[in-house]
Amino acid sequence: MTTTSWHLSGDFLELCNCEVACPCVMVGSDAMPTEGFCDGAFTWHVEDGEFEGVLLDGLNFAFLHHAPGRRSDGNWTAAVYVDEQADQRQREALIEILSGKHGGPMENYMALTGNFLGVRFVPIDYKREGVNRSVSIPAVLDFAVDVLVKPGFEDPIRLENTRGWVPWMSLARGTRGAFTDHGLRFENTGKNGFCGPFRWPTA
C-alpha cells in the first residue's frame, strides 16, 4: 500500500443473497452465508471525493462478487463498474482506488478476489428516494431496497459498529435484485440489504 492523498464519502447500497440479516455482517466474515455462498454487490454514490487533486464528486461505481463459501475464505469472482460520466482522469483515479493499492475497503476485497473479471465503464443511475435506495446499470443490474422498520417504531433499524468505513447503516430488504454479466446471474429480490453513508479511507 502506498501513501496517497485521497478520500471518498457519500451514500451506498448493498444487496446480497443472504436472508435478513446477513450473518457475514452481524457475526463476521467467518460466518457461513445463509445459502452457503455469497452473491453480492456494493454500489456507491460519491458526494465528496478526490484522488491526488482529481475531483470525483457525483460519480457512481459498483463492485459485484461471488464468494463460493465463507467470504473470509477468499477465491471470490468479482467485477468493477465505473460511471461512464467520469472523464479520463477520473476513470484512472477510480481505478486506482478500486484496485485496493491505496487502502480502504477495496484493499481487503481485492485481496480476497481470485478471479477478477475487469472494469467496465457503464451508465449507473443511483437514486436515493427518502430512506430507500435504488441503482441500475442497463442490461446488467437492477437493484432496489426498502429499509426495515420494526413494528411500533417510526425510524428504520440502524446498525453501528459493523464496518470501519460505515458510520451507520440501515437494515433493508431487496425489492429488486437482478444481476447478469460475465456469465454470472443472480436474483436477490427479497434478500438482505444495507444502505447508508460511507467514508473511505477510515479515519
Verbal overview:
The chain has helices at 23-26, 88-98, 105-111, and strands at 6-16, 38-51, 54-55, 60-67, 76-83, 113-122, 125-129, 132-137, 141-147, 158-159, 169-181, 184-187, 192-200. It has 203 residues and is mostly beta strands. The chain has one domain (6-198). Strands 1, 2, 3, 4, 5, 6, 7, 8, 9, 10, 11, 12 and 13 form a 13-stranded mixed β-sheet that branches. A hairpin with an 8-residue loop joins strand 4 and strand 5. The radius of gyration is 16 Å and the shape is globular.
Query: Sheet with the most strands?
Result: 13 strands, mixed
Shape: globular
Extract low-pLDDT stretches.
none
The helix fraction, in percent, is 10-25%
Based on helices, strands and strand pairing, what is the structural class?
A: mainly beta
Radius of gyration: 16 Å
Tally the structural domains. 1
H/E order of the elements? EHEEEEHHEEEEEEEE
Distance between the termini: 16 Å
Tally of contiguous helical segments:
3
Instruction: Please tell me the overall pLDDT.
Output: 95
Classify the beta-strand content into a percent band.
over 45%
Number of strands: 13
Can you tag this structure with a few keywords?
3 helices; single chain; 13-stranded mixed sheet; globular; about 200 residues; mainly beta; about 10% helix
